[in-house]
Design brief:
two-stranded antiparallel ribbon, four-stranded parallel β-sheet, alpha/beta, about 15% strand, 7 helices, single chain, about 220 residues, Rossmann fold
């Protein structure tokens, strides 16, 4: 039985063309996302957000393969969601919102305890900015503030609390993955990325967090 190498070659060319076309379309999506953020207006949010849900992870791999900084994709993803949800987030009462803070904001000598149901239990020692942020959230009526020990904990709390909106502080990649998660649950979100990533002693603009908690109360 002879093999038609010409036909196999044609199939290869078609597949390669499709992959190139998809890559170009995704890169166009990145450009459109950047322009919408720059102009402060998102076009067709019901189309753009599901589209970004689909292309976020492939785009990170493409950017990494091309030698670009993949954080650009995460930044666009987070800012697009903030822009799309801004008005709706404001309309939801604070009592229907919860705040997630990353455990990596804690000080090295943190004396907090760990609960499987409540996450990290802050002792309000003042060694890190977490107590100040928590105080602000509760003062404007937030339902709950959780210091998260991990991503699986976040999913469990969402199922338990069933919030209508979530305000989150985390690294860009975790915020992007969290955006995919809350889209699945139909929850409105707002996010502020850390200024300094890492597993310990991370940093965030505390004034920005507090100002946005109040502005989007």
């Amino acid at each position: 039985m002879s093999v038609d190498y010409g036909f196999i070659g044609l199939i290869g060319i078609i597949v390669a063309a499709i992959l190139i076309l998809l890559t170009v379309l995704m890169l166009i999506g990145v450009l459109l996302g950047y322009l919408m953020i720059k102009n402060g207006k998102i076009i067709l949010p019901r189309l753009m957000l599901p589209l970004w849900d689909l292309i976020y992870l492939p785009l990170r791999k493409i950017f990494n393969w091309l030698g670009f900084n993949e954080k650009i994709i995460a930044e666009i993803n987070v800012e697009l969601r903030n822009l799309a949800y801004a008005n709706k987030f404001k309309q939801i009462p604070s009592i229907d919102k919860i705040l997630f803070l990353p455990q990596c904001l804690r000080a090295l000598d943190c004396i907090a305890s760990l609960s499987s149901t409540e996450g990290i239990i802050c002792k309000k020692c003042g060694a890190c900015p977490i107590p100040k942020i928590m105080e602000c959230a509760y003062s404007i009526g937030y339902k709950k503030v959780y210091i998260t020990p991990g991503s699986s904990f976040v999913k469990r709390i969402i199922k338990k609390e069933k919030p209508k909106a979530i305000f989150a502080v985390a690294c860009l990649h975790d915020l992007s993955l969290g955006g995919l998660l809350i889209s699945h649950f139909g929850i409105v979100g707002r996010a502020i990325p850390l200024l300094k990533d890492g597993c310990i002693c991370t940093e965030v603009d505390v004034d920005q967090v507090i100002n946005e908690l109040k502005e989007y109360r």
